[in-house]
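pinging the channel bc i need a second pair of eyes. not urgent but kinda urgent?? the chain im working w is below, pasted from the shared doc
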Amino acid sequence: MSKYRIQSHPILPIPERQPISFTWQGKTLQGFANETIASALFANGIRIFGYHPKDGSPQGIFCANGQCAQCTVIADGLAVKACMTLLRPGMKVEPLRGLPNLPEVPAAREFQPTRIVSTEVLIIGGGPAGLSAAIELGQRGIRTLIVDDKHRLGGKLVLQTHRFFGSINACYAGTRGIDIATRLENEVAQYPTVTTWLNTTAVAVFSDQRVGVVRSLIDEHGNSEYVLIEPQVLLVATGAREKSLTFKGNTLPGVYGAGAFQTLVNRDLVRASQRLFIVGGGNVGLIAGYHALQAGIQVVGLVEALPECGGYKVHKDKLVRMGVPVYTSHTVVSANGKESVESVTIAKVDENWQPIRGTERTFECDTLLIAVGLDPVDEFYRKAKEFGMVAYAAGDADEVAEASAAMFSGKIRGLEIARYLGKNGFEIPAEWFRTAEILKSRPGKVTQETIPEDETVFPVLHCSQEIPCNPCTSVCSQGAIYIDPEDIRKVPDYIAKKLGTTCIACEKCVTICPGLAITLVDMRKEAEFAHVTIPYEFEKESLKAGDWVTVTDTAGNLLGEVEVIRTRIAKATDRTMLVKVRAPRQIATRIAGIRVQENWVSQPTEQWVERLEDDTIVCRCERVTLAEIKDVIRSGVRDMNETKAITRAGMGACGGKTCSSIIKRAFRELGIQPAEVTENTLRPLFIEVPLGVFAGVKDE
């Protein structure tokens, strides 16, 4: 078994999978059936997938979601996206070097006509929003077709090993994302009027109000079928794509999106890195850091340009108390290395967001995760509205928010579509719209943690920021944890004394908290020591009674070494280990977690590394630099189409999905307001499609 495969995981099961052989540059390697080429290559320690034809720069994965073309390889003679193409036995895979030579293909002997399929509702995207809408439609007997480009349903839910925030009644709060995906998938399967097409990519919306899709891998030859779908209503639930960032070395193999990392680690069980550094303090970056630690990967640090992380404080708290430093008011200066990432250089920023000379530090790492925000994948929705289709958008395609909000918006859109199709006898509850707004809320103010007085056993609620979340209120048999039911964004309050009751030390609140932000303190056992129960989601074999561990407070400050007196993991704890430690009373209420990463992991190098080559790339596909883009803007160009014609930025395989937002940022940096800039004209096809598929070529 490769050292790059995850052999055990505290949350994810390690399934039995069928090994298959394939070749890379003529060398026989092992992969698994039903995994992508990209995952199989990573599992064999291969990070460089090819070299760009323009300048010979090494290429690797970036999005792992089919949105770009950085991972292109030659598989059995054809150029394919390694992140989206499933491995087949005996497949011959080669790196892309320069422009590929087209294979010898015999004249097609058979063409199949394009099928036209009618349905009442077409849902593009089988993630949390699309599945939630399909359930509402299925309950009302509405013919619905879901198309999704992955080999299983669930969208980004299948990457989320942590418990979800939000409302326990509205969106499965307190349940892990991977389990929510299974629940939604199983519920959708119960409705005979709902059909699902997996490995199916929507490629365009046409003026005749049809949607073109490509169904891939429908037989042992890997053939694809092009189908036109005629829906009465279109629901776009395509999620979001990750934003990119410009800095020197920003396209080196090893620089890629946090979502790509989670795909490799949590879906494909590949240890995609040994040491990583994260750029971006939103929820995506913070959660990715936690997932890396669970997979046994060292997290060297996280950098955030703002004075404070924009993600939930409980996510940040988890990282810092486990030993990961967070550098706010800092930015990445460069990714360093020749063929792939070897280190990263960061620096403090001034009030104008510019690096401050003399504050640079370099950290050794092999992976740099970019988690600087998301853009909605809404081009299908916009084009459908332009062509007069009845179209709705849900989830991140409508507004980027948490997955809990996506599920709820899907429910609402499902009912709205049912009403449009004439299904009556129900009303959309008014409170649903308020719940939807609450679930989309950004983090609110931070309050002071309160410690119960004159009590001998009690929970300490280290959750001190206003966020939409209430699972802890549902499990307390005493009703002693309270959050305003009218606004679940309020900070939880422990009210046992007010109710005239006491904590029974059941530890359920410790287990269910999505932020691992509750500990239980028991002062009843000893005069000078307290017993503190701490949630712990790492390998159960890593701790046992009699071990000594380093405990930290919410901010990651070291409190001391304490003895483990019990560990407990059971079906009721849902893969969370409860670790009970014996701690001096004076620190007991401040204990928030256990340090899992040693301090030496995050130490900078003695000398900082300066990358001399000005290779700050805006357009990955065409290798267009930021300097080239700004020169064109300074010449007076205010039209992104003209910018594309001059520089080729946006003319590559991804269709400008990655570089468009960066080009707009370049306009803003040069003082050009968005209203002065003419937008890119969208391509008729949003995803690349082989011409043979359109023609209906059927290969043997």
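so The longest strand covers residues 225-236. and The chain has a mean pLDDT of 92. — does that match what u expected or am i reading it wrong
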